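TICKET: design request
STATUS: open
ATTACHED STRUCTURE:
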């Protein structure tokens, strides 16, 4: 099983604190900025950053749906980590200043991929597909915080 990684980033015309606070707001903002690939969104505990437990289904392809139950931590300032209780998937969101009134948001997801030929295709195509999904999410987030 090889580790698979998908990373996407975007510069957003809002300060880092505003962007991070929006990302960490699982009660109000996160559900609004998720693209159509996500369904059954539900905050089960908390709702604001550290200590949040959130559920969703992620439909990465027409045949592949992940049932995700994510524990949220904030290991350092400007960083959210979502660890899936149902798989090896870990998503890290990092928000840093990028000049006057701007910030850079980076999302990186890693998981243990399948073995064999299936693993080859997963490692080849999954990062691009997930990257497109997260690019849309970051675009929605930018539209939300740049209002």
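STATUS: resolved
RESOLUTION: sequence designed for all positions
ATTACHED SEQUENCE:
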């Amino acid at each position: 099983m090889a580790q698979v990684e998908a990373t996407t980033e975007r510069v957003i015309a809002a300060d880092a604190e505003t962007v991070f606070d929006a990302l960490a707001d699982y009660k109000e903002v996160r559900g609004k900025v998720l693209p159509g690939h996500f369904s059954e969104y539900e905050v089960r505990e908390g709702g604001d950053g550290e200590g949040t437990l959130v559920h969703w289904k992620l439909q990465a392809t027409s045949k592949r749906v992940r049932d995700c139950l994510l524990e949220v931590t904030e290991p350092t300032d400007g960083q959210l980590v979502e660890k899936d209780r149902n798989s090896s998937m870990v998503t890290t969101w990092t928000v840093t200043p990028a000049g006057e009134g701007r910030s850079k948001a980076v999302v990186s997801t890693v998981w243990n991929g399948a073995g064999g030929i299936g693993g080859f295709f997963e490692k080849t195509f999954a990062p691009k597909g997930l990257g497109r999904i997260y690019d849309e999410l970051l675009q929605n987030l930018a539209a939300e915080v740049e209002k």
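CLOSING REMARK: The helical segments are 16-24, 29-33, 116-145. Residues 37 and 63 are 12 Å apart (CA to CA).
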